[in-house]
């Protein structure tokens, strides 16, 4: 390998935490060590960059974390990094320590910060997509998404037990403020009668038609999975409206909430995080900057960070049709 | 064994469903079969008894259910069984089929119905404690309780990942309208800073003192586990009050909800259910009636059903102290 | 959609069972129903085809199976289907029932049978890749692979607890007679010191060098993950050889075995199985034959079945390097 | 509380590791801290006592370990502690540090060491039963047993998926060199056809009779759970013998092995460990010595350590009958 474009890098986790962030961090630190790049961890995202909260990290700093949820570097949203002054402070710390490359693990907001930071100060940045929402362009899956799907699915499987035993209708809210990936996939995987996501214009009439069709086929209990960001109505309102038209239904609401962000990462997430963490460091070494490391069909690919932010993984239209066909 | 006191029995599940009800049902059906007792399953609790919704069951009727959550007989709360007319109809069906013994799997309400039914019509009844709440006297644990504890604990473990990563305070509501068993044990098992249960008079000041003490020891994130039936305030109110006194806290609320009722039963619940289902049938055979089968320190014991209803498993005071000591 | 190329189809599962086969079956049956195609399930793979063991299936035949491991149609390896006479009998049954399309869920062997059957008798066949080994060309993942990875990983995580507590070395054998996918990915995900797979020529010296390097970094316990089909030696032989050179090591062996084939499918496997089952039916309707339905980077693709058999998913060379770098 | 009988205590984990040992350690350390007792952790069991490998522990030393398998103090079997010289060295270290009480978390062997140590040198010792085997008298359950049961059960549930799909017979070996608790309870919980344990004289004829009876009832697949210490034959021999008499059977063997020792402890184990760790410290404070802290029917009880070693929890005879009745 020719000479590395970076000598000393820093790594941070920012935005909502996601299972596998620790595995990505471990990969960054150990890959840097393997290639004789110095590596610093930054605590609490961009806030740590601004406050100079750096931590020298070696291979042993990241032992026994590949299987842990959350992020040992902690995460935070930083208002100050949105200001020029904040970013200047952050840059000064980088200069002081001689840091010439920055790995930013997070989502949209994290990448936007990284992009501006690079454009203003020229420091090399590379993004690693860590968010359960899977709403980042340039990678088949984001880190944490697969684990969150399994967590949501397991919870809905359990809810189905009680729904079936009592002939109940459940409206289950899963995470996803802007994206319906978790709802669509966990709903498909649990045989949900209907799945409501922000990417599609849903109507209450269609939902009610589905209820009526289910009755005809003798289905005595139903699960409706609703993304957090669904525009038609939230789960409580949906329950209320349904009760009006179907007064005999025994209707319940469940909000899966923050447990979807935690837990030991799945194998797919640990492997993805390991590969992207590796890819982020080798990308920086090869001189890449302002890109995001992603994985497509098992290949490591780099996408301009601007594209990763602006474009979005599109919900597969087929999946909507398939979920409808299979939830007879 | 001398001659059995019963020749034909029926079994039903009633009240809120609990993991392990199927395992208990399987044990009832197969034990009856082993001892040449005819056995009927009754659908949807006491409603099925009233409506004559009986199902002849043999060993193969209950195959592959020991590991399934919910209840294949379905469950329901019956208003009609609270009336004399309803119970008369139920008794008529029993007479018609020649049923001389009834196994009722459920909680307090289920047992109250069974007791009245026995007192009015003389039909032998035996209760099997199936409820996640563990609020039944006469058994160390109720069926479903252990599974619910593990479900709640796993969810709180996940929430802790994100609480720790973001230095947050979480108020987590677990099930238990009248009893704090789930809250106390899952809270202890997850190192909750505080645990609020209906059996104890809690004060907001004490909670706030705990927050302040935690700050002093450098604890950056906290979980407070709150039983559904807590009298001081619900999780939303607690979050609001806390925010007023601790405006810097990043506070979130999570309601674990119905997933706590479902899922494949734990080993302890499957074994308990198997033993109690067996004990219910052999108890009826030996002429027992108006009792509940329970397990104490690995021994099968029968408790008068009246006692099982009126008395309550007491929250262990030690546990409250221990949880306080250990959540430093 | 223009007229369907098939009117009556059959579906079978063959070869080693894999989690998600039931989800694929459900998708085939319900998709067929949706498009007014008659659908038969065939019991015990090609044996059922030969013996005429067909089962008419409708939407309700596949309820509550999406979350179940194994295959309700059962699976078997059929010697008789390898003979012309056997296949003739199978074809006669198809003719008798008017079956004009066949969905074969399984692996290499299953597809070879399907291909010959198609070539001899012209009946349309389509393959669905269901095997935990992931050794099928034409799809990013096979059905069951993701679940098996998580099962293996969870087991190795547990073994690590005891390895660490006792400073032990564990040789863990995972499934994969010809392919190292499970070993490589589960080993990477659990931080294995070394991973031995049939695709690479391994040497005992290299393994011993890794042990010595681990000692130098102060690593007190180690996991070595070995694919079933590793050519260097099996886990027992490896343990013995290691003991000779490292007499102080406390060495243990674990063979994860058949549990890797079972369990409730992961979300990814349920979704993959649903999409491929759907794709198999719509593929047949569109006139496709002698192809396999697969998923690449979230897109449904069809690969000539001959190619799916002859080519192989290649182990990613990067992954070997990454696992070495990260297991410092 | 009157004055404590101890001022400075040490705690160690010894023998085979068990899930919940960390939770017990945490409880010991934090209870000691609460009552102003100094507390030292001893590394690697009695070896650490002999080598003076002590570690001062405070509340923060045990944070985030309640949910971790294994033991952060590490465990080992010590040959040297079986010698007078070894124990003298250990005592000298205790004297030097002023340690006047010792909490020993482990099983039979651990307690025997503790007892001799106390008798020779008078230092107060208290045992905490930490072993997955549940073969300790004086407590309903030992720490780790419940988790191991669930691990074994989950694995057997998975094996059943593949057994059922292929009509196979599986001989599954679970841990338990001297005790059949894990075999009996996990076998009962998974509907095993037969369960072979060292406490009962098993015969191959009886096993074969069970196979023949199962055939009659149409059971196409079977699981036989065998304790490690079964005297009749090991799983490989059983498979071979069965194959001779039932040549048509497709027979497989699975050895669950060391994964049964690991994993995050169940809620019951975390609570049990917390209560016993608390009870060990308060017991020492009250002047108790040469006893074991145990839990019976939710009450903390102390048993003379000699009794805990000599007597054994008896396999419940009812359970054997029940497992036979239910595995029809």
From TrEMBL, chains A, B, C, D:
- State the InterPro entries in the record: ATP_PFK (IPR022953), ATP_PFK_prok-type (IPR012003), PFKA_ATP_prok (IPR012828), Phosphofructokinase_CS (IPR015912), Phosphofructokinase_dom (IPR000023), PKF_sf (IPR035966)
The principal location of this protein is cytoplasm
Entry-linked Pfam families: PFK
Binding-site residues for substrate, renumbered to this chain: 131-133, 168, 175-177, 228, 252, 258-261
A single GO BP annotation from the record?
fructose 1,6-bisphosphate metabolic process
Catalyzed reaction equations: beta-D-fructose 6-phosphate + ATP = beta-D-fructose 1,6-bisphosphate + ADP + H(+)
According to its UniProt record, the EC number is 2.7.1.11
- Please describe the quaternary structure of this protein: Homotetramer.
Query: What job does this protein perform?
Result: Catalyzes the phosphorylation of D-fructose 6-phosphate to fructose 1,6-bisphosphate by ATP, the first committing step of glycolysis.
Please give the name of this protein. Answer: ATP-dependent 6-phosphofructokinase
Q: Which gene encodes it?
A: pfkA
